[in-house]
Amino acid sequence: MEPLDERAIRASFVNCSKGEAGRIRMPAGLAGDGVPWADLDFLGWTDPGAPLRALLVVPGADGPTGLVLRRPEARKSSALRSSMCRICLTDHAASGVALFVAPLAGAAGRNGNTVGEYICADLACSLYLRGKRQPKMRLIRREETLTLGERVDRAMTNLAAFTARVAAG
Question: What phi and psi values does residue 76 have, to the nearest 5 degrees?
């Protein structure tokens, strides 16, 4: 992913007001070298000032698209269950995947309409794809024959579909 500055990130959000976008705290390390841009296909973080708010910025042909998401409150779950991220298809223990809900863009979102997707709870899909991060507990081992490029393309196609549903309102 190409590095983005704070101004570009704030301008990218499609499902919140400009005022709301202005109040979002940026990810740690954005101003310095703390964001591993070369290993990221999209930028995802939890707002440190609002821990139930998560944010995604997805690159696209027309520039980045930012989404404000609501993350679920922490809950205990069975460690013996497994869940799969619908973006990168990484298997995790149940607590490693969360249902993130996004208000739709425009009038539909202002009326309370939302869509959701099961995504890696830490929003680190890019790092899981590259083997730079491992799930805490993998109950199912699936070996893939796809190359890294093919897995990244699949993940970005999945994420683009979710982003399009939110942006279409």
Answer: -80, 140
